[in-house]
Design brief:
single chain; alpha+beta
């Protein structure tokens, strides 16, 4: 065998093999990290989707109770609780508030004046307008509520997450009390 043939041997050197293994390990670590992040993101999405579904269910139940029982019985200022299995890691809070309608600052000022205490320069049309604005404000305040619901859960060890929604409910079956002048 000539010395020239000894240098042309086929195969990999130890450094080439070591470099290939290092690149493979780096690629594997990156792939595992990406997979772990993907699994975590999927779990987060599942929790948010479940919480959103529970939120919708809570709000639908509250709206149905208000429709069946009316504001006085079904509309608690604040109510909270936990969901039953398999959703025991989630809890809910609902708020129901009367909306204080003031059609405008001038309408509120006009509506608060007693017709007997008004100046002589105020016309009958102004008195009627004040009465209409006051009656409309009172009727809207009695017939509408703001509903707010929120669902909470603990993500991981300490991170509290939540989803919430606010809506308004109007009762069209309440009678309109029309005062007389």
């Amino acid at each position: 065998m000539s010395p020239h043939n000894a240098n042309n041997q086929s195969g990999f050197t130890f450094i080439e093999v070591l470099l290939a293994i290092t690149l493979f390990v780096i690629a594997a670590v990156v792939a595992v990290d990406l997979t772990r992040g993907s699994v975590r993101a999927t779990q987060d999405l599942k929790e948010v989707t479940t919480a959103t579904w529970l939120l919708k269910k809570t709000m639908t139940e509250l709206e149905a109770r208000i429709e069946a029982e009316g504001f006085e019985k079904a509309c608690d200022k604040k109510k909270e609780g936990k969901f039953e299995a398999p959703f025991e890691k989630y809890r809910w809070v609902t708020h129901c508030h009367e909306i204080d309608f003031k059609l405008s600052q001038s309408a509120a000022a006009m509506a608060s004046q007693d017709p007997e205490e008004q100046e002589e320069g105020v016309s009958r049309e102004d008195q009627i307008q004040k009465m209409i604005l006051k009656t409309a404000s009172e009727h809207l305040s009695k017939s509408m509520r703001e509903l707010h619901a929120e669902v909470f859960w603990i993500q991981g060890k300490k991170n509290q997450r939540s989803v919430d929604v606010t809506t308004h409910v109007a009762r069209y079956d309440l009678p309109l009390a029309i005062p007389t002048l």
